[in-house]
Write a structure and sequence with these properties.
Length: about 300
């Protein structure tokens, strides 16, 4: 059962997809971030996230040779998709999946479709590294901003363009960032400078000429994220929040794409900050002895 649906401090349910040749760090990095996070740093039992793994086979080998045992197959995941609040899609070797349109592409589409049909719940779809190519082929990134590993910017643009032509959809803005958050949601609070742990930058189309009056339009400005589990729970209860979420693309599905390898840690820290608390995210980074590098948000709405 979704913790968000319950509105309690039960663990938020997370499902990681696996495919043959996935990148090990794309999975274990964000998984460690989420498993370390607590709703209450003083209470070691207040686990913030509960992680499960899905694969087409009982054991799936990564590109680095690590074999990981899955908790379920994709048939079971489709059947129980409503139980999950977050779907994480790692990258790695992607050609075989893209060529055959294999899983996790169908599961990605089902997760996004569920949000469009029922925007009353807060759900997140997050990719790491080249996992964004799967989101692109699934048609999820149309009209959004996205990023991926720097070596694959061009390929992401190509896959996004092909999906847009296929579906007669909107183009995708590929951004050179650590991570990009679409449909971000947060409480403004009384102090607009409070918790400025994310920055916001609007996409440019077309890019300005250096030195032109518009060349500073892409400058970063401080923003804030929603603070604390109570705010997260309330965002699923208020009728006004549900209406605003429904008006966003994909029914307000939060879509996060991250760059390569360690950028997945950054995106996972953002997710902890957005869904648990900023303090929890900072504590996770401290425990892991990791310097949290910030990404950008686009199309954010105060709920």
């Amino acid at each position: 059962m979704s913790a968000i649906a319950d509105g309690d401090h039960e663990p938020i349910q997370v499902l990681f997809t696996l495919h043959p040749g996935f990148d090990t760090m794309d999975v274990v990095g964000p998984m460690e971030v989420l498993n370390t996070a607590l709703h209450d740093p003083r209470d070691k039992s207040s686990k913030a996230f509960e992680v499960s793994l899905v694969s087409s086979q009982p054991g799936t080998s990564s590109a680095q040779g690590l074999t990981v045992k899955a908790d379920m197959n994709y048939d079971d995941a489709h059947q129980n998709i409503e139980d999950y609040d977050i779907l994480v899609v790692p990258g790695g070797s992607t050609d075989a999946v893209l060529k055959t349109n294999a899983e996790p592409i169908s599961l990605i589409q089902a997760f996004a479709e569920m949000q469009k049909k029922d925007p009353s719940k807060e759900r997140t779809l997050m990719s790491v590294c080249t996992g964004s190519l799967f989101l692109a082929q699934a048609g999820i990134l149309q009209g959004l901003c996205a990023t991926t590993h720097p070596d694959h910017y061009a390929k992401l643009e190509i896959v996004c363009a092909e999906a847009a032509r296929r579906d007669l959809g909107d183009r995708t803005d590929v951004m050179e960032e650590r991570y990009v958050v679409n449909n971000a949601r947060f409480d403004l609070g009384d102090n607009l400078d409070d918790n400025p742990f994310i920055v916001s930058k609007p996409p440019l189309d077309p890019p300005p000429t250096p030195g032109s009056p518009m060349s500073n339009r892409n400058a970063r400005r401080a923003s804030i994220a929603r603070k604390g589990s109570d705010a997260w729970r309330e965002s699923n209860r208020r009728r006004e929040s549900n209406a605003r979420r429904a008006a966003l693309r994909l029914g307000g599905l939060r879509v996060i794409t991250s760059g390569g390898i360690t950028a997945g840690l950054d995106a996972a820290c953002y997710l902890v900050g957005a869904m648990v608390s900023h303090d929890s995210a900072v504590e996770v980074a401290r425990i892991m002895q990791y310097q949290w590098n910030k990404g950008v948000t686009v199309e954010a709405v105060d709920v």
